[in-house]
Amino acid sequence: MLPYLSFLSFLLVFFIATFASPIAKNAKIIGRDTDLQFSYDFIIVGGGTSGLTVADRLTEDPETSVLVVEYGYLYADATNIEVPGLLNATPYEFQITSTPQHGLDNSTFAVPAAAAVGGASAINGMFFDRGSAPDYDAWVALGNPGWGWDDLLPYFKKSENFTPANDALAKEFMITSDDKAHGFGGPVQSSYPVFQYDSIKNFIRAWHSLGIESPEDPSGGTATGVYYGSSSLDPKNESRSDSQTAHYNSVSSRPNYHFLTGSAVSKINFVRQNATGVEWINRETFGFGYVNADKEVILAAGAAHSPQVLQLSGVGPKSLLNRLEIPIVIDLPGVGQNFQDQPTLYPSYNFTSNIVPNADTLNSNATYADEQLQLYYSSHQGAYTICKSSGNVVAFNPLPQVTPNYTSIIALAASLSASSLYLPDIDPTIITGYEAQRNLILNLYNSTATAVVETGFTSHSEIPLTLSKPLSRGTISISNRDPLNPPLVDWGALTNPADVEVMVAAVKKQRELMATQAMQELGPIELSPGANITMDADIRAALRQQVQPTYAYLCSTCSMMKREFGGVVGPDLLVYGAEGLSVVDASIMPLIPSAHTSATVYAIAEKAADLIKARHGLL
Ligand SMILES: Cc1cc2nc3c(=O)[nH]c(=O)nc-3n(C[C@H](O)[C@H](O)[C@H](O)COP(=O)(O)OP(=O)(O)OC[C@H]3O[C@@H](n4cnc5c(N)ncnc54)[C@H](O)[C@@H]3O)c2cc1C
Ligand SMILES: *[C@@H]1O[C@H](CO)[C@@H](O)[C@H](O)[C@H]1NC(C)=O
Ligand SMILES: *[C@@H]1O[C@H](CO)[C@@H](O)[C@H](O)[C@H]1NC(C)=O
Ligand SMILES: *[C@@H]1O[C@H](CO)[C@@H](O)[C@H](O)[C@H]1NC(C)=O
Ligand SMILES: *[C@@H]1O[C@H](CO)[C@@H](O)[C@H](O)[C@H]1NC(C)=O
Ligand SMILES: *[C@@H]1O[C@H](CO)[C@@H](O)[C@H](O)[C@H]1NC(C)=O
Ligand SMILES: *[C@@H]1O[C@H](CO)[C@@H](O)[C@H](O)[C@H]1NC(C)=O
Ligand SMILES: *[C@@H]1O[C@H](CO)[C@@H](O)[C@H](O)[C@H]1NC(C)=O
Ligand SMILES: *[C@@H]1O[C@H](CO)[C@@H](O)[C@H](O)[C@H]1NC(C)=O
């Protein structure tokens, strides 16, 4: 090979020999070679939920070479990941604190962003659901043909290996599903924990008594009502199924698949607007590495970090790049804008006659906890099959089911001028895009086809109330040119007054729920916001004090929308104005679905892999 090397390649060999090799000794490179190649067909930035899915699909073809560069490390025998009830996410997260949240009395909050091979799928609550059909059809309306519910359903199915609840559990707890909605050959395991707490039945009865029904299967495009969602859980031994177990472990020996851990991608390299490779910094040695991509650089660093990498590389809002003296490669105002998540209030109760055991018993009774852990290890049964702090039962309510006053909330939202919600120097395309989104959202608020508020119930003393489809928007932006410096994360939670009114209505609805016979059997006494907080003004004040800006569903910071709408990628997932550069993670969702986001991320990644293969003639 040597005689054919050009001078440039020679320089590269020299460069890699000089700089990359020391890194190779310290970081894990998996594959036939012990060293990195000069170049790969594809470089994937981030080995998380989406990144490992795309890497698996692209390396199915032995002729296609792929390098994944991941900030975190492989976990092995990590009981705090694998055993659902022992989850401890903290060791596998970035340490980022948000900016003061103006809608939340200027409090700051920890940012849930995963830093591990497997990404957030390794540390999430394992709730494995999809949004309703109109959630995805709204993506089409924002300029994305091919991304509606009917288009995505085959990819939801492709990603999934579904196992219905066993007969005894299904009968006792009224868990229903419809095989037509599911996939049975995919890599991600989807099943129901073999254990549930009895007071779940009260919660379901309570909603039924208020006229809220249960769909046969929420995965079929109607994810409203009160229902069980499956978990990303392996029914063989009731352990977590994540993108490392589903998409990495069984394929990591492919010779065309290389993997670098403990490395923070710091920059995408460009020749003009053509993405030609990436640079990274090793987390331990601070050594610097560089490699070329022959076909495409694929961003999968998650919604907090994909916009960070783009901005560091000179792709982003001109004003930001100029201020930080970063040479502009592409002026793309939408990078880091349109940031969405699901703000959540955790009303808490003293259940004076709760059924024992319940989700709190693991904390309050060490004998019970020991017994259950033994049971998990000996026969994969019991309370530890349920993910810690999570569960399987939710109510997803359309706005007309939350409050009869929904039209006044819609009118309030419509009356606010979009530009008043942004700083004066905002690019006009961002406002245009927001207005288009708002029209779609308000149509959904005015229907029963998708949900606006979620209530989760685990039998625990807190019953989270989540705003599934907020109108407020936030931003992610770098504050300087240091790639190891975390980005500024500003959720902008509850900055739109209409979001506050939806939450006020949700608090009142939860009180209606707690007043039903079925919930009263558990003897709830409201501790927070507090039974004395009844006037709307007091509820609003309590919300600003107590709401968390996140349910850990960061998304939409590199939105797939028309460029005139402030979009960052088109329906082909290619970054506007660039060549050979795409985004495939949660940041591309233009509107957050009324659901937890992992199943949608897997579906996006499966579709992304097909799009990428197709454009490079690899299908
Ligand atoms: C604590 C928590 C609980 C959740 N609970 C649920 C739930 O119960 N149900 C559900 O459906 N969803 C849940 N989610 C959300 C869901 O898991 C995520 O939306 C989804 O997994 C995101 O996938 P992603 O590919 O976009 O990003 P990730 O899976 O986060 O992957 C991004 C990867 O990029 C890496 N990375 C970042 N920056 C760089 C860089 N500069 N260089 C190299 N690598 C980098 C990160 O280390 C990470 O591995 C939860 C999320 C969290 C964090
Ligand atoms: C939050 O901070 C802003 C300025 O940063 C200030 O104008 C506002 O009054 C503060 N809000 C509260 C509730 O303290
Ligand atoms: C469950 O099985 C998988 C392999 O199928 C294994 O990797 C994992 O360690 C097991 N987990 C537990 C908790 O038994
Ligand atoms: C962009 O770069 C790739 C290599 O990274 C190359 O194959 C391709 O031809 C380049 N495209 C243009 C238009 O220069
Ligand atoms: C819950 O109620 C019980 C019974 O009324 C009481 O003894 C206990 O102190 C209460 N706990 C809290 C945290 O309020
Ligand atoms: C704690 O759990 C054990 C085992 O399940 C049970 O026998 C005991 O009664 C429980 N103790 C209390 C105080 O509930
Ligand atoms: C609906 O709005 C009216 C007027 O603001 C108010 O008086 C009433 O209490 C509201 N009803 C509910 C259920 O929120
Ligand atoms: C809400 O829907 C009804 C029909 O169901 C329609 O008459 C009304 O105009 C809609 N309101 C808004 C604000 O879109
Ligand atoms: C509600 O009660 C709490 C605790 O007693 C008190 O701190 C708070 O000021 C009260 N709020 C209102 C609006 O009455």
Automatic annotation (TrEMBL):
Q: Work out whether the entry's keyword set contains Flavoprotein.
A: yes
Q: Where is the Glucose-methanol-choline oxidoreductase N-terminal domain?
A: 302-316
**Which segment of the chain is annotated as a signal peptide?**
1-20
**Region labeled Disordered — which residues?**
214-249
Which terms are listed as keywords in the entry? FAD, Flavoprotein, Signal
A Pfam cross-reference name: GMC_oxred_C
Molecular-function GO term, any one: oxidoreductase activity, acting on CH-OH group of donors
The residues that the entry says bind FAD are 49-50, 265
Q: Which Gene3D superfamilies match?
A: FAD/NAD(P)-binding domain, Glucose Oxidase, domain 3
Which biological process annotations from GO are given for this protein? secondary metabolite biosynthetic process
Output the lineage of the source organism.
Eukaryota, Fungi, Dikarya, Ascomycota, Pezizomycotina
Q: What is this protein called?
A: Glucose-methanol-choline oxidoreductase N-terminal domain-containing protein
**The organism sits in which domain of life?**
Eukaryota
The record's listing under InterPro entries reads: FAD/NAD-bd_sf, GMC_OxRdtase, GMC_OxRdtase_N, GMC_OxRtase_C
Q: Which cofactor does it need?
A: FAD
Family from the record? Belongs to the GMC oxidoreductase family.
